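Open question from group meeting: does this chain pack into something compact, or does most of it stay loose? Before anyone orders reagents, we agreed to write out a predicted structure and look at it together. Recording both the input and the output here so the notebook holds the full record.
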Amino acid sequence: MDLAIYDMDRTVTRRPTYTSFLLHCAIHRAPWRLVFLPVVVGSMLFYVVKLISRATLKEVNHRLLIGQSISLAEMKPLVDSFADRQAATNIRPGARAAIRRDKEQGRRVVMATASYRFYAAAIAERVGFDDVIGTNTMLGLDDSIICRIEGENCYGEAKMRMVADWVEKSGLTGKHGHVRFYSDHVTDAPVFEWADEAVAVNPHGRLRELATKRGWAVVDWG
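Structure tokens returned:
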């Protein structure tokens, strides 16, 4: 089976979703947590100057705006309302057309995103994806989502490892056909290089340069 693998934030979506999701949860569940916004901004500055990792940044902001843990039952309506809004307002028209075309060609359409899988999967379902690879969170014994990443943050080289792991666990090693990969960012270079067909979507400067050098397709999805 041929595969079509898509990054999510700024590839399928117009705008990134992670911080928006945290704010959505805080506003609709515990508005008092918005007092932590200056700390959230501070943590982002710490990340920019490389004092903390991207994974730590996620965990810190998750704890500040959602809390140490939240039950799956309490999280579900927050995820559903957020995913509904993203599907209605934040999906690139070109992404919808590409997903439709890839499915018509018989491809298995997969999302591979650094965003948390538990909410990215809800967006992916609404847009028509078959599978989702994403950053996983730890689950407590009481069926609660904990503000700790389980495994790796699905970003950069880790995304390539997680895609390879998904291929193996799906029983597709040595069996899948042509792989088409779409992303907006140069940090996905490992997956671009692995794929049979690389498509740079609304790329920033560094990815545009790399795409020109490698002869990859460049598309504008609006």
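Observations to bring back to the group:
The mean pLDDT is 97.
The beta strands are 3-6, 69-71, 108-116, 131-139, 144-150, 179-183, 197-201, 217-219.
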